[in-house]
Design brief:
Order of helices and strands of chain B: HEHEHHEEEHEEEHHEEHHHHH
Shape of chain B: globular
Radius of gyration of chain B: 21 Å
Oligomer: heterodimer
Strand order of the largest sheet of chain B: 2-3-4-5-1-8-10-9
Structural class of chain A: mainly alpha
Number of strands of chain B: 10
Strand content of chain B: 15-25%
Largest sheet of chain B: 8 strands, antiparallel
Strand order of the largest sheet of chain A: 1-2
Largest interface: A-B, 44 and 55 residues
Structural class of chain B: alpha+beta
């Protein structure tokens, strides 16, 4: 059997791909298989996460009745437009996230099923958030001890919360 | 430490192959994506901005009490194509970084950590451990992350977390992955079913060298897809739970093979060992397949006189760029097949336990 790509050399690499139940058999010679890339039998070389994402973004950018979704906003910091983003699937800088805020939200939900970060908070960049999360935890604890009528403990926790809230005010 | 040390010292920490569950799990890796505030992301940054980030990362490492003097910086533009390729083959940098003239990598001397600068994101911290050690890899990467953050202004949003160039990484910016050797599941045709299920719990499966290279040497990488909405610990525990189940499946598949097809398995393993120690021309694909068989033979005690690290080490050493560096000359494909066979014959002899 000859290589289906160059039709010159004998096919030594046989490959079956099944996409949505549709079976395609590939028979390549070693040279063509290598050319297509060392072991990466990727027969759709343009199919990357960015292209996939761009497709997803374009499908979501369909105009909705009554709302002008075709407006092409620009990020004030790096100058990237939303159209450019939806083509390459990558933002230009961190400011893009605020520039395109309303339009990013549904995208994140679609990709991750969520749009709220609950993981690590950096020490410096997230200083305030760290304090806020601590206050939330303390408030939950306060509710718990009040229900148990442990008022001494409750007073302690209340003081802690006040102290943390003062810290937040100072930073403002 | 010179570049040559990184190259001739073939053994990275992860290749030592003696972590927990090492009979199935070759390595555990954590990657954290981080960016700096108010600097365009690498694909939009100019050379000057990109250089500045490399310098800032250098300072952050060298001024820290924990890591000063432990990393070596490689700027991509100062390396030859072959040298970059070797770093890729050793899993120390990504193919995308190797292509980037703006890129640099800070590699820890034991090769357990590499910090890629100006890849898709400004900073990508990668830690690599042998066996199933995701927690250890996480502890090290988060520590390095803290050290860098002391001196660098990260782009972080209270709601969206760490901001990344691609929205698929936003939030935790974490990618956890394990490299698994699953010969028995493959022989029993059970791997596809398992991989389909994995996709339904937010994980993804790839071959050794990325998409489409599925199954080469029966080696697979499993990693998380989602980065937003879950904590790092949840993501790690989820992947760990799934990995443990796959390990159990693989082990029982191995037992079943041994029980139902013992002599045929022994024959296959023995032939693989025979070819690897006596061939004079061998492609990397054939070598990977045979190394996988030999490794299975060692794990099942069918081959008793070989060190089990042979697979971990050789799967890197037989790659094209590494071979050319090792033999100090450019080689075409045919010449590589000859040199590869010679290297394999030597190494197998060296790995014999007397």
């Amino acid at each position: 059997m000859l290589c289906t790509n160059c039709k010159k050399r004998p096919a030594t690499v046989h490959y079956t791909k099944i996409v949505n139940g549709e079976k395609t058999e590939m028979h390549l010679c070693q040279v063509c298989a290598k050319e297509i890339s060392d072991f990466q039998f990727n027969f759709e070389p343009n199919f990357s996460i960015h292209n996939l994402l761009a497709g997803l973004l374009n499908s979501m950018a369909e105009p909705t009745v009554g709302i002008d979704y075709q407006r092409n906003e620009h990020c004030p910091s790096c100058g990237m437009s939303f159209n450019e983003f939806s083509q390459i699937g990558r933002f230009g800088c961190n400011e893009c996230y605020s520039a395109f805020e309303g339009r990013i939200e549904p995208i994140l939900k679609r990709i991750h099923g969520s749009s709220v970060h609950t993981g690590k908070v950096p020490r410096r960049a997230g200083g305030e958030l760290k304090v806020k999360r601590e206050i939330d935890l303390l408030k939950a604890e306060l509710d718990r001890v009040v229900k148990l009528e442990e008022y001494e403990k409750a007073a302690e926790i209340r003081d802690k919360i006040r102290e943390l809230e003062k810290q937040l005010d100072k930073n403002k | 430490m010179s570049l040559d040390d990184f190259i001739y010292n073939s053994k990275s920490l992860w290749m030592e192959g003696n972590g927990p569950e090492a009979d199935v799990v070759l390595s555990s890796r954590i990657r954290l994506a981080r960016n700096l505030r108010n600097v365009p992301f690498p694909h939009k940054a100019n050379l000057e901005q990109a250089d500045k980030i490399i310098k800032q990362v250098f300072d952050a490492i060298e001024k820290s009490s924990e890591f000063a003097g432990q990393f070596r910086c490689f700027r991509m533009k100062e390396l030859t194509h072959l040298e970059r390729q070797i770093l890729v083959e050793k899993h120390l940098i990504s193919p995308a970084l190797a292509e980037s003239e703006k890129g640099a990598a800070f590699i820890k001397h034991d090769e357990s950590v590499s910090i890629m600068v100006n890849e898709e994101d400004h900073i990508r911290i990668q830690t690599l451990y042998p066996g199933l050690q995701m927690e250890k890899a996480w502890q090290l990467s988060t520590k390095i992350d803290d050290v860098l953050e002391e001196r660098l202004d990260y782009a972080f949003d209270e709601k969206k977390g760490y901001l990344t160039a691609c929205p698929t990484n936003v939030g935790t910016g974490i990618r956890v992955s394990v490299m698994l050797h699953l010969p028995a599941l493959n022989m029993l045709n059970q791997s596809n079913g398992i991989f389909t299920t994995i996709g339904q719990v937010g994980l993804t499966v790839r071959g050794l060298y990325g998409e489409g290279s599925k199954g080469l040497g029966n080696i697979y990488q499993i990693s998380n897809q989602l980065t937003l909405g879950q904590s790092e610990e949840d993501i790690i525990n989820n992947l760990k739970g799934v990995t443990k189940q796959i390990i159990e499946h693989e082990r029982s598949a191995r037992e079943k093979l041994l029980k139902d097809a013992g002599i045929r398995l022994q024959d296959r393993v023995g032939r693989a060992y025979g070819i690897l120690s006596n061939s004079y021309i061998i492609s990397s694909q054939e070598a990977m397949e045979l190394l996988s068989d030999v490794r299975l033979g060692i794990d099942l005690n069918l081959i008793k006189n070989l060190d089990s690290r042979i697979l971990n080490e050789m799967m890197i050493l037989i790659r094209p760029a590494y071979l050319q560096k090792f033999f100090g000359q450019e080689l075409n494909e045919y010449e590589r097949d000859i040199k590869r066979a010679s290297l394999l014959r030597d190494r197998l002899k060296q790995s014999e336990i007397k």
